[in-house]
Amino acid sequence: MVWDGDCGFCKLCADRFSQYKNQKVELIPYQSLNKKYPDAPQKEFSKSVFLFTPRGNIYNGAEAVFRFFSEYSWRKWAFILYQKFKLFATLSEWGYSFVARHRKEFRWLVKIFWGNNFTSATFQTSGWIYARALALVLIFAFISFWSQSSGLIGSSGISPFAEKLGQLGGSLSDEKPFMKWLIRPTLLWFFKSDFGLSFIALLGTAASILLLFGFIPHVSVLVIWVSYLSFVVVSEPFLNFQWDLLLLETALISFFFLPWVIREQIGKAKEPSPIGRWLIWLLLFKLMFESGVVKFTYFGIDGLNHWINLSALDYHFWTQPIPTQFSWYFHWLPVLFHKTSLMITYFVELILPVFIFFPRRFRNISFCGIIFLQIMIIITGNYGFFNLLTIALCITLIDDQSVPENLKKYSIRSDFNLRKGSMYQYIKNFTAVCYLIIFLITGFFFLKLDFQGNKKNKSNDYTQPSLITTKLVEISQLFRSMNSYGLFRVMTDTRPEIIISYSDDGKSWEPYRFRYKPVKTNNRPQFFPPHMPRLDWQLWFEGLYIERIMQSPISLDLYKRFLEVVISSDIKLGKLKLENFFTKNELSEINSLDQKYKEAYLKNCQFYLNNYINHSYWFGMFLRGLKKGNSDILNLLSKNDIGINSPNWLRVELYHYTFSDRKEKKKGYWWKREKLEEFELNISLEKKYDN
């Protein structure tokens, strides 16, 4: 193949072509051709590329390019179109001529999009690093939950998984036992004891370690997905955060991305699957873009949107679930800094995700911007492994051409060889394509809902999705591996904190202290990523829930009764009835009411009760565990509270917390608080609630 050696654009194209020649064709500038072939038409070579075949045929222009790729790469489709369709051939030649006449301009465009390296992107280095980064995040995730699992979902924990599975299994017909696997796809069906929790956690951790060292990565990541899914489906509400769902989706997609080898060694990294790589990019795009969209389409109960009016960061640093000590300093930065930071955030979440699908330089910009945002979030807030997992996804954006040579030589092969895959690779690619189609269908569905938001006119704009889309979304929800994202759709502007105290005489009270959530005003916010304290986080949500309940006196009264019954009795979830929440005298008064009014009243109460059971039963069980002095549950609290015996009284209060000002901070106070007098629950544990 002969090209113009004096043309910078031609040199870049020649470098790109050299990746595919596979030593079957010689690429030579026409300026050097004169030495071999003095009679060659130099003038013609300066206008167009020429391809000389062993058979003596000569081709130039677009036809030469298409024939080259047809012979020496997998891109045979272009040459087929060129041969079969005259219009395509005509347009191709016109396009080639246009580019040839404007080579300087196209050299400038290439430099903008690709830089000085126009070779096709390969991802051996980033693929190798991604696998190790993902493995580290997975190890953190499994160990973090493992350390809390006994207190959260163990046999004596807050929400025992065995009870959930037992209730589900008993409610299903014997004719369809497989349904339990569809509703709760978990390995814990084989284990109904705490041993199962430890075994699956150990299994997931071991598979993550195998992935870290490159042993059977495609099998390891599939075992990881099954193990973590086994926890997620039985751990509501403690494992229902967006990063848990992101971990599952990432692990499943990585099955298509990672190489199918027994042992992946340093210096022998393989090129990741292109389809798998695009799936990861699409997941990263969905995560970031949805997070940006929902900030503009969701509004609070009062109709306000702090993201739109640029006031969100006035509240975020101190209202987020568990701030770091750095959050206090960021909160007191000038308002201009907060507003500028928000604008940068919107740019990163709405514009940079589009750059993911652009050529090299734009991908690199997207990489830098997204990682910068994740690092800032890590510094100012504790979100477990969420941000580290997002950073791991970003690694796949970097191609080998952007990696420094001193790093590249340790992790990739020196050659670029596109070989035909074996049968299992074809099967893998076919499965990946099917997954990609389902991903796109469900992704468009979620994105459409994001754009609709929670506006009042949502019902007017809503269109019923197709039956296929509905079924695909339903199936994806069963396995939690195709999800919608968008953290903090509505920015909270208050911080209601639940304070739980105990007493032996009902007069002298001592608060339970937690490891991370604030209790006393001198509690310094901590910095502890990648650990995820599930109980502390969930109490933050419960505080917001109680604050909403307080707007209705009837709802608040029934909520208090709900907690009293759950705490003071041993009634299990499946046997909770509306009658349990009224005294005999109250039931007698209700029965004496007019039938129509009675039915309406009981229906309203049942609605509230169902809501509390779905949302707050875990909280009642947590308080019951404190009542009994349950050691597994107490282990979730501060080490100072581990040895607390069963108290005679429990008190639940609600306070509004805010960051202290600079003067108070100098005195050692990080917080200031104000009690909400509308909510206080004192429960005597010496007597049962009278039904």
- The backbone outline, from C-alpha atoms, is elongated
Low-confidence stretches: 413-420
User: What class do helices, strands and sheet pairing give?
Assistant: alpha+beta
Report strand %. Answer: 5-15%
Separation of termini? 92 Å
| Number of E-type strands | 8
Radius of gyration: 31 Å
**Domain unit count:** 3
Biggest beta-sheet profile: 4 strands, antiparallel
- In DSSP terms (H or I, runs of 4 or more residues), the helix count works out at 31
Q: Please list the strands of the largest sheet in the order they lie side by side.
A: 6-5-7-8
Q: What do the pLDDT scores average to? A: 87
Range of helix content: 55-70%
List the helices and strands and how they pair.
Blueprint: E1 2-3, H1 8-18, E2 28-29, H2 30-36, H3 42-45, E3 50-52, E4 58-60, H4 61-72, H5 77-84, H6 86-101, H7 103-114, H8 124-146, H9 149-153, H10 161-171, H11 179-183, H12 194-212, H13 217-232, H14 242-257, H15 274-297, H16 313-319, H17 325-331, H18 335-350, H19 352-355, H20 360-380, H21 386-395, H22 405-408, H23 423-452, H24 458-461, H25 467-478, E5 496-503, E6 510-511, H26 534-549, H27 553-568, H28 584-591, H29 595-628, H30 631-634, E7 649-659, H31 662-666, E8 671-684
Parallel strand pairs: 1-2
Antiparallel strand pairs: 3-4, 5-6, 5-7, 7-8
